[in-house]
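User: Round two. Same drill as before: sequence, then structure, for each protein.

Assistant: Same drill it is. First protein:
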Amino acid sequence: MEILTVVAPVFAARCSVLVADDGACVVVDPGAGAGDQVRRLVVARGLTPRAVLVTHGHADHTWDAPALSRDLDVPVMLHAGDAYRLEDPFGTLGVLDPRHDPSGPLAQALRAAGVDVASWRSPQRVEPFGAAGSGRTGDVELDLGGVRVVARHAPGHTEGSTLYLVDTGEADPVVLSGDVLFAGSIGRTDLPGGDDAAMAATLRDVVAVLPSSSRVLPGHGPATDVATELATNPYLARAR
């Protein structure tokens, strides 16, 4: 298993392309501007797409998902708790909604990337997993051809935030953490659907018990590993 990284221009969101030995691939978190790079990669490598996964429903992680779903003929998959966000990913951002704050950071990043907010179209093929509602819903093993992924519900940043544990053939999985865990920090909880108590529980009961040698690829910023975060991340220290 190989994990390739494409960085979207809006908020430098990480898009990961998981490539199995047989050429099957899964795209994770294709933010605004990532789609063209992903398409070129699929063609150049002769890959067979299986799905588009998103770690959560915020626009900087989902913008190119509908178009890639259509062009690659695969479903968009995400936790059921965030499925409603695909109808209007900006409307669920509260104060960051660029339609309400045209001079704000997201609006500026979208303009710089040439993204027209009004052009959003919800994906036609959506396959939610897990269950909506309060409380953590546990693990779901996703059947994605040659790509082996466990989706682990990790609410707090949003209701349906998810860690993807990717089997790369190493002793421990690689963790795609979205906006739950960053190097030295965590995702914000003050936007609609965020929850301080849920995030603390996620850090304590989900993140802190991951294998310490697991590599972590966050939704933004540098890669890290669980051992480093357990030793140095102040938010994990407070939650444990």
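Second protein:
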Amino acid sequence: MVVGPINQLKGLLVPIAAGLVLGGFNAWVLGATGATVVALLVGGFVTWRTTRYEVGEDRLEIRKGLIRRSRRTIPLERVRGVDVTSTLLHRLLGVAVVRIEAAAGSAAATEDGKLDAVAADEAERLRRVLLHRKAVLTGQETGPRAAPGGGAPEAGEAARGEAQAPPVPEDDTVTYFAMPRSWYLYGALSLGYLLTPFAVLATLFGTVQQTAGELANDFVVDWVTSSDRGFLLVAALVFAGVLVLLMPVFAVVSYALTHWGFSLRGRDGSLVAERGLFTRRSVTLERRRIRGHELLDTPLERTRGAVRLRAIVTGLGDAANRAVLLPTGPRPVVEDVVGRALALFGGTLKRHPRAALFRRLTRAVGPFALVAVVAAALGAEWLAVAGAVLAVLGIPLGVDRYRALGHGYDGERVSVRSGSLSRSQATVERSAVIGWTWRQTLFQRGPSLADLQVTVGAGAGGYTVQDASIGESVAFAAQVTPEMVRPFLEDPGAPGHKG
């Protein structure tokens, strides 16, 4: 009755405030504002009275609505994940949001269930019950612990918690990682967090533009035209300088708010990642659906030997956020967590041919060098200088991109690495490989290079070995999945072989 109206009111605060200020606080505006608040409170009461959920032996059913009623049934065997999220408001009221992601019968579609403002302990109980029963129905759990309990299904009311707890496995939790305070400083190495002040300013500007409209435009134009230009220039430079100096501070603060108290635990056959200060989010990933992991970094992060960890999971929506297993931190610590929670790649990455270095230098230097030559011929000196500078800067970029290339196989896992400004090393289980795709452009044919995509049924769907030798890439694929590749290879000793 409280969370729903407040969440809806947050989106109306700016328009209501603008209407009150611009409207001069007249009776009509005050009456409309009061009516809106009353309508939201009534809506919250109706939602609370009409929302019910029931956990059956093989399904979750959610019913809601008074005039427009809805009933959503989610088969428990199709449940892919159960996330528990608590905003600051939810935590103050002792409640949480339970989101259930489930396959809808096709690879592209999903059917989601959402229970908002259930009691915090009830949210955790629902997570355990749903994942446990899903494991029982799909045959992933056997023995005495697999018994679903029998009897009638339990039912509950949203935010009332009248459901009786069914028998579920004991909560055996293993803590793999608890974030130390020193890790928050790594936020200053992330370009996304460094740009937080500019994103905030853009949001504020857009909000003012939408609410005030022409009034704001006229005010800014009048202020600029009436002010001294020298003063405006100095003020702009000072503001820009202060903003740049505060970028690391904003980055660390934003990073801390997002990843505050980050922890990674093993529980009930799943990995549970929990994070956030104001909005606390708990994401559960079943181990059986985790097919590998990614280590990601940027040039700034590499200067401090830092990486991020993300899981490669089958059938996961919003993987960029939900698959995060560790935020940016020291590589040795991250690799230690990978070794204990998952499995670390035990082989070495093979370097790619020198022809791949030439291709990366051509891409990084060639376009800017061409611009510099054309600009010099046309007499555009500044453009020629800029093109030449960018061409020179492209040399270390091309070399770094070449050094990042690599692929390997340790007998159980395949690992592929590429990228410079955003480098990624993806490691997947051999059993996750479902196909291979070779692609060769006209410019790759001369040096006998090709791009080999390792197709997997998880994560991004495929990871590319860029600019690898054709012969070496074929041998690599045949080593990983011989039963898949060797039937397509020619045997020189076979009858009728033409070479």
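The chain has a mean pLDDT of 83.

User: Perfect.
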